[in-house]
Structures are given as structure tokens and as C-alpha cells.
Amino acid sequence: MRQIIGAICWCAVLVGITSLAGSFRATNACGTRGEAGLAPEVSSQPVKAETVEYKSGNETVSGYLALPGSPGQHPALVVIHEWWGLNDWVKEEALKLAGQGYVALAVDLYRGKVAYDPQMAHELSRGMPQDRALRDLKAAFDYLAARPEVNPNKIGSIGWCMGGGLSLQLAINEPRLAACVVNYGALPTDPQEIQKIHAPVLGNFGGDDRGIPPSAVETFQKAMQAANKTIDVKIYPGAGHAFENPNNKLGYREADAQDAWARVLAFFNRTIK
Q: What's the total number of domains in the chain?
């Protein structure tokens, strides 16, 4: 999981370049903290949401669970936050996915802490044990698989920035995962890790992302193809890191974000819906 740590370090470097000192609205490599309030886009069906608790090893952890309002079993998604933690923007994404018919569990890898400035985000991400994070993600998968509203054979994952890299790590370490989306997250380079990925993978990346440059994306794509894995990546010219997050005031690209969202929905529709 060294790639994830490296990506976090790169976010911290860019913070020093682009953040506005003393401002909680500072823009940086991983967007902003995203506390604009929950206002999800109009969805195809009503949704409900609640905070839930479940076991991760010997610990009890919590997450934000968004559920479709329709009866019966549904596909499900493990939703993985950026380095800011489980903030309102991530909850909005979970609600949007629930509106599309998915049971979406947004995990809380920071145990209730949310960063309000880049320095805190850096400290929280660097202080998060990687083995614990993976254990939490697998626990979230198991929690979803055991819920009566979920089809256990149709569980996928999606993450952004730090969460994008962790989405891939879940694919590496959970053979039951049925689909994986990585949005500008750290990419594995070890052929043995890539060989362990069974889920089809969709990736959205920025052409001007200096932390995860197009050359790294292309290398990962070729390695996946050489291992006969299913991979679909798109690199958006001119887009930097965190271009999908509207709270990233200097880096948000609305048209690209909408296209990436459409790609995500189409991917999940053909893989787990």
C-alpha cells in the first residue's frame, strides 16, 4: 500500500503551493473539506439514510448508510472518502448513488474525525494505519453482504483520491468484490497485486495531475491488460487532481465531473446492477 502513502504525501506538497493560509476554504490537491451541506441532485427514486455501526476486528466502527426507498434486494457499494474524512460531500455522493438504486455505505476510516484544514487532513491520513483501513473496508463489505436489502454477489467500491487508491486495495484483497471505481487514486505497480484483482476496474484521472500522472495511469492500464483484467480508464486533458469535487474551487471542472459521473453510473449499471 506504499502507493497510497505516496499519493497522500503529494497532496500535502500541493497544499503548500495552492492553499490560502488561514482559510478553511483553502483549495489543494484533494479539493476542499466539502462542508457545503447535503443537497444531492435529483435522483430516480427516494432514499433514506442513517448512521450504522458494525464490527471491524475487535472494534466497533460507524458509517453513513444510504438506502434506496424501493423494496427488495439491491446492489451495494463501499464508498471511500478523500483525505478529509467522512464529510458532507462524501455523504452527498452516497445519497446520489442510493438514488440510482444502490445501497451505499460511506465508511469512516478516521473514527469520527473530519479535517477542517489541509494540515489536519495530512495528519489524519498519515496517522491512519493502512492495515486498519483495509480491515475496515473488508468489514464494510461483510456488513453490506449480510444486510437483507443487499445482493451479496453484487457489491462494488468507489473512492476518490486517498479513497480511490483504497478502492483498488479492496479489489486486491477482497476477491468477492464485483466492481471497482478509482477516481484519481494511487495505482498498484506490483504484478502480483494486479494479478489478485478479479473485479472489473473503471478509472477517471486528470491529465494535469502531477501526483498520478498520465504515464502512471497508462502503465497501470497496460499491466492490467497484460494480466487479462478488465480495465476502462479515461484521462481528462487539462484536469488536475480532485477535479470532480465542486468544493475544489480552483480545480473543479464541471463538464469533466459530469462525464466522469456518467461513466461511473454506466459502469456500475453493466457490472453489478
A: 1
What is the extent of the structural domain holding 253? 2-19+47-271
In a domain, 28, yes or no: no
pTM for this model (two decimals): 0.89
Residue 131 belongs to domain with CATH number? 3.40.50.1820
Q: What is the pLDDT of residues 87-114, one digit of tens each?
A: 999 999 999 999 999 999 999 999 999 9
Q: How far is CA 204 from CA 51, 209, 217, in A?
A: 29, 11, 9
Mean pLDDT split into 10-residue runs, the chain, 273 residues: 49 37 35 44 77 98 97 98 97 98 98 95 97 98 98 98 98 98 98 98 98 98 98 98 96 98 98 97
Query: DSSP readout, 129-167?
Result: -HHHHHHHHHHHHHHHHHSTTEEEEEEEEEEETHHHHHH
Tell me how far apart the alpha carbons of residues 38 and 17 are, in angstroms, rounded to a whole number.
29
Longest dimension (CA), the chain: 50
And the C-alpha cell for 129?
494505519
Residue 109's closest CA among 130, 88, 91?
130
Q: Is residue 133 in a domain?
A: yes
Within 8 A by CB and 6+ apart from 161, the residues are 7, 11, 29, 30, 31, 82, 83, 183, 184, 185, 241, 242
